[in-house]
Amino acid sequence: MVSESTGSTRSRIQAVALELFTEQGYEKTSLREIAERLGVTKAALYYHFKSKEEIVNSVVEDRLARLDAIIERAHTRPDDAAGRHAIIAEYADEFFQHGPSAMRFFEQNQTAFKHLSGGQQMRERLFAMIGLLSRGTDSPADQLRAALALFSIHSSLFAVRGPELSNEERKRVALEVAHELLDTIDGKPPAGTD
Q: Is this model's pTM higher than 0.70 or not?
């Protein structure tokens, strides 16, 4: 079991590392620079993570665990508009609570991330989410709608302009678009819109 202090130190290291990787690139960032930004010795950093790859893998593992929990709960939801809304809302909550810094890192360091084992696992989870959001239909158009609904959450970080927008406002806009897409899956309008 990880102590709260160890867990918070680990989280701080992850956050600072992602910040530096995003600012100057994964390849150009050293463990020494991460330690300096944290205000600790390289040996103290090394106690938690032996390499940059370990840091990134830990971020990916944490995200995969959260996605697995969402996917598990999604299997219990109905395959109708209300069920799809619940799935995408839970995904958006997780994404905006934990994902923006990781998403910015992944977007700006695609080459480095592609070579890490977590990249394929992350893609598999996203395809599982798309499958759950389009469950009950074989339509390629509905599968695309489900994918676009999911990616509207991600895209809100990059496509919605305005630094004055909070993550909560971005999430609201992203969910509005996602719901519009999900509401047309399988040609079934959401309940109460007859």
A: yes
